[in-house]
Design goal:
heterodimer; A: alpha/beta; Undecaprenyl pyrophosphate synthetase; six-stranded parallel sheet; 6 strands; B: alpha/beta; 56% helix; 10% strand; globular
Amino acid sequence: MWHLLHVTIHLCYFAINIANALESHLISKGLLRRYKSLHISKLQYLAIVIESEDCRTSNVIELLQWLADLGVKHVCLYDMEGILKKSKDFILEKFDGATLFQENDVLLDQPLMTLEFASLSDGKEAVAKAANVLFMKYLKSGSTSSYQGEQIFTESQMGEALKTVGGNGPEPDLLLVYGPARCHLGFPAWRIRYTEIQHMGPLKSMKYGSLIKAIYKFTMVQQNYGK
Amino acid sequence: MVTSVPNKVGNYSSTGNGVHKLFFDDITNFLRRCLFRVLSVGPIPTHLAFIMDGNRRYAKKQNLKEGEGHKAGYLALMSLLCYCYELGIKYVTIYAFSIENFKRRPDEVQSLMDLMLEKMEALLMEESIVSQYGIRVCFIGNLRLLSEPVRAAAEKVMKVTSNNSKAMLLVCVAYTASNEIVHAVEGSCKEKEKEFRLCNLNNNVMDDVKEGEKVNGMVVHDIQDFYEDTSVESQGLKQGKGCNGAPYHACESFESNWDQVLTSKASKSGEVSEGFRNLRQEVPVIKLVDIEKHMYMAVAPDPDMLIRSFGESRLSNFLLWQTSNCQLYSPAALWPEIGLSQLVWAILKFQQSHSYLEKKMKQL
């Protein structure tokens, strides 16, 4: 009975995927009016999370080309194991339209796309490093005994400490996950507080139309930020 | 595993009496239990987290007063909790109130606090869901931001349910993940600072050995008096809790060979004090494991799945640290409309991705 249930679901997903593929084709051909004009300026910073086992550089470069064609200016490429980081030079060499993102870069319109490469070590481990930076300040302040039960650090101090250890880039507006499941796979927690997270499926079956649809959906979202 | 308990599911939202209604309830309950047995053939999540989005929109949609949306949301929550615990899901976390929510209109914040206080008191009643399923309730967040009556009620619920062990309900209130991370870093700093002071105290003691220029026996006696006088520090040293971090190997061996050091090394006090002066320069290192143990959510394992209603696809500063390998699911329904079908679909999605996410978790 359980197996029957899951076979039924697989069949449903198969049908949904066919419908999505058709829709994606129509979007990429510009046949669906709704997706013709994207307010791409709303997307200041895009993060792409890719399952490490699927990190084929040819697919990544093609994806970057699509993003450049759509006018996306700042992209962070993330995979857990750091395979993209190791291929950084190769990707920058093969993809002409990008430069490496520098930590102090402000998100301005630039002729070339800026590319950031991140991995698991930029997440929790960076927080541990930042904690040690704050700890040194705490010890040096000398008035540790007066802090019992009170708040010692603010969130902005944490953010500054993360910056000093190289773990606090811009917060992405949108995070696209290319992998088997909708899961951010350890993308630096401090940076995705209000980031929209969308699942795109495996990288090898990526589609241009699906990318447009995902960005379009993002541009239609309105956030209250808790209010 | 399906827990068989006296069945009260459905009563939270059912109104009206009648034999037909009871018969219908029995049939649906029976079918639900059958469905749960089928689902339980596959893996069931240990921990589910919920972002309850859409209460205000629901109230607007149904032309209700604003506060009524939250009340309807509470009923939906209670039904969902019953389904979860019946399915054998041991941990459920809910995002009840964010620190950002304090920015809402004061009357709305107050009505939410009043609702929370009312529901906390209801949890303490004998026939509540907490008693029915043996749930331990934990309130997670910066509780000092809450008003005194709400904080006191939360602490009372935690105390009364502390011995329950069948399941756990974690209610995130006055919570954001960024606040949680900062709090954990603060806790780590305070802990490491205590270690640092203890080891510095050792260094000061050894310097006294050198500077005292007394007969060894007298020096030993004086140091032992000093050691016993400083009760907290000496307890730490005796129990080996003072300097157990990696950079402090010298300190550990010193603490475990106290008598040997005092008698044999006191004569080499020049060497020892030099060594300990060097130690004094070293500061204990905060590691990831230190931060993780100071997280508010350290009382539970990481969630397997996070469900946000209303189709929204962001985490809104909720469990950012704990969701590295957590599947995210966003059904379109508003929170008060969330029910059994969304939960069943979520479980099925979890079962489809389970082997992949388990593999990812092992890689960490």
